Amino acid sequence: MRDKTQILLLLLGQVLLVLALFGLFYYLAPWLDAMPIEEAERTAMMHPAPPPEAKSFTLGHNKITFHSHGTLYEKPFKFWSLVSLFVILSLVLMISIYYVIKLRNENNS
Fold it and tell me: What pLDDT, in 10s, does the model give residues 16-44?
């Protein structure tokens, strides 16, 4: 019974890890294509006026989206620390999957 509880708790943790990884990826994806706000003004692609807190923008499907996080070149430490967190969480997820498989095999033996 104890092993089944461990497996269920690990599976719940894995679901939470997957959700955290999706959220982190959703947050990191715009950084990869972000351009400085000055570039939008220079190329005259300003569809709407940028909000005052906008530091960068992305173009997708001919639509401009403004972001307050800046670009990858302006804040590389923040970006790479979040990428490192993504990699660490991915490794934790893989290790926990291995541990669940190991527990299931021990229970079946």
Answer: 999 999 999 998 888 888 888 877 766 55
Q: Which residues contact 106 (CB under 8 A, 6 or more apart)?
A: 3
Q: Rounded CA gap, 49 and 98, in Å?
A: 50
- For the chain, give the number of residues: 109
| Tokens encoding 23 | 């959220």
Residue 63 region, left (φ>0) first, then alpha (ψ -120 to 50), else beta?
Answer: beta
Closest by alpha carbon to 64, among 52, 51, 53?
A: 51
Rounded CA Rg of the chain: 21
Element (H, E) at 35: strand 35-36
